[in-house]
Amino acid sequence: MAAAPIPAPPHRVLRATDNFRWPGGKRVAVVFNFAYEGWSDGEAPGIGPMGNVLKAGYFDTNADSWARYGAVRGIQRLLRIADANGIKTSVMASGVLARDYPDMFVRLRDAGHEIVGHSWGMDVIHLYLDEAGERENIQRNNAAIKAACGAAPTGWISPRGTGSLISSSLLAEAGYVWQGDCNDDDLPTVTHFDNGARIVNIPLTMDVNDLPHSNRYGNTPHMFVESFREIMEGTARADSRPFMLDVTAHAHAYGRPAGAWTIDAIMKLALKRDDVWIPTRQQIAEYTLNQGMEWLE
After folding, report:
1. Does 297 reside within a domain?
2. Does residue 295 sit within a domain?
3. Total structural domains in the chain?
4. What is the CATH number of the domain that holds 31?
5. More reliable by pLDDT, 291 or 135
6. DSSP-derived 3-state class of residue 106
7. Residue 243: what are its φ and ψ, rounded to 5°?
């Protein structure tokens, strides 16, 4: 039997009114996320590129090798593409990779990309942990990233974008400015807890995300680019309300040559538009908090 969920602490969520606008009146905030993911020692993804699950109790060497590509080659290719386009990205980074590849975290920091807390490993999911376990995981992840590059992250997205009912409050307590374990809005919101803490909630949109696009639905890379193009053109014709849109590439999936070109193509499409702001998630959080309360309700 699963453990009973820990009740969420008392809080209120403030959402954007019709007065909210992105900087310069831009209609769309497009965030480029790179998922730089690892698994705890002795763990591997539950499924690999072959798509069929092994018998229980057997270590999936195929999935393990597939996932390791992200740290070996994938993240480097994605960063070259981002840097060539002059775009700063938000990099969801596992703590275990900060331990194993500290030089990459220095490179990310020096290039101006945002390092986002993404749990110790993709197998460490807060929903399965008790309160003490969540606190320990947050602290362990922070310590590993700080040891690698000198600064702890200020934003967090859990594996699967799945936090627990108390994750937001624990992250706020630990000094996090924003969290992205939410997709119930298309603009940032702010949670105020009764203990005085607060945290910005930045939706993690899944419409342009390589793993569900290719691994789950079997779509081609070309269709990935077309999805972005159609969203931008279609929404511009249909609705004037501002929104945000994530473009997410996993270093072990579209960090490969077959998919990485799509990130370059989408970046170039976004850069050509005059109605797009291309921030990191931290920049969205800072902008949100600097707007004051008149646009929240």
Report:
1. no
2. no
3. 1
4. 3.20.20.370
5. 135
6. helix
7. -155, 170
The one-letter amino acid code at 55 reads: K
Question: Three-state DSSP class for 244?
Answer: strand
The whole-angstrom separation of Cα 123 and Cα 108 is 23
Q: What is the pLDDT of residues 103-159, one digit of tens each?
A: 999 999 999 999 999 999 999 999 999 999 999 999 999 999 999 999 999 999 999
Q: How many whole angstroms separate alpha carbon 293 and alpha carbon 297?
A: 8
Segments forming the whole domain that contains residue 205: 12-42+58-290
> Measured between alpha carbons, how far is 281 from 91 in angstroms, rounded to an integer?
10
Both tokens of 118, joined, read 């993404």
Torsion of CA 36, 39, 40, 46, to 10 degrees: 160
Identity at 138, one-letter amino acid code: I
- Gap between the Cα atoms of 191 and 194, Å rounded: 10
Whether pTM exceeds 0.85 = yes
Distance from C-alpha of 165 to C-alpha of 149, rounded to nearest angstrom: 30
Looking at per-residue confidence, does 1 or 26 come out higher?
Answer: 26
Place of tokens 């910005």: 200
Instruction: Quote the tokens at residue 96.
Output: 């275990």
Whether residue 1 is predicted with pLDDT greater than 60 in this model: the reply is no
Residues 31, 82: Cα–Cα separation, whole Å: 12
Report which of 13, 8, 69, 100 is spatially closest to residue 288, judged by C-alpha positions. 13
